[in-house]
Amino acid sequence: MLPLLRAAGYDVTGTTRAASKAEELRAAGITPVVVDVFDAAALSAAVAAARPDVAVHQLTDLPPGLKPELMAEGLIRNARLRIEGTRNLIDAAQRAGVRRLVAQSIAFVYAPGREPHDEDDPLISSAEEPWRSTMEGVVTLERLTTSSPGIDGLVLRYGMFYGPGTGFESAPGKPAVHVDAAAQAAVLAIARGAPGIYNVAEEDGTVSISKARRELGWDPGFRLRDSALR
Fold first, then answer.
1. Which of 15, 97, 175, 196 has the fewest CB within 10 Å, making it most exposed?
2. Is the preceding omega at residue 116 within 30 degrees of 0, hence cis?
3. What is the DSSP string of 131-187?
4. Dihedral angle computed from the Cα positions of residues 78, 83, 88 and 94, in that order, rounded to the nearest 10 degrees
5. What are residue 102's phi and psi, to 5 degrees?
6. What is the DSSP letter of 117?
């Protein structure tokens, strides 16, 4: 996502919890800020200092390589981030006058029913962990993003990631999306599309992506190697 943002002419501030990663961001042309999203005061100060027009919420807290033995705890941490972290980020964004928020969600949590699912279809519900926490996190993130006063919120429901850095060379399941195409969708959503929810996945019959194609101008076949950035 970072090279696409820079190529589009955006001035970008990127957050990380790890000071060791700050230099990686700086080397990519990004202004780094070391901050923990759970530290509401520090996050609010960081957003106020950056004075962004748009915030892009791609925060996750999952284990490296999605190792199966670590996923149960990771999903619960991730749910907390989607709930508490999203709330802190939106509070900070509202105080700083941010006008638009693009947030990451997931497209593989639709309740069983006719396919392809569109964005108005119901999501699964579960009383058992880790799905109970996962769905609480997804629903809260999407509600906060799309209903917070003063902010035009767009939710991108991504398919399962594959491609560089994901640990998967091909689609690990359905629906899926290549990370390059997912990044393109987020960059497009910064300037295009009405507030609301968008499925961002490949056309494998699982979810409908006609809304993202139409309103964002998104291409599920986009790859960085084929773009002007190659």
1. 97
2. yes
3. HHHHHHHHHHHHHHHHHSTT-EEEEEEE-EEEBTTTTBSS--SSSEEEHHHHHHHHH
4. 130
5. -115, 120
6. B
Q: Model confidence over 162-171: pLDDT tens digits?
A: 999 888 999 9
Per-residue pLDDT tens over the stretch 16-30: 999 999 999 999 889
CB atoms within 10 A of CB 180: 19
Q: What is the CA radius of gyration of the chain?
A: 17
The structure's pTM equals: 0.93
- Per-state percent for the chain, helix, strand, coil, to nearest 5: 45, 20, 40
Question: CA separation (Å) from 95 to 38, 51, 61, 130, 186?
Answer: 17, 10, 25, 33, 23
Length of the chain: 230
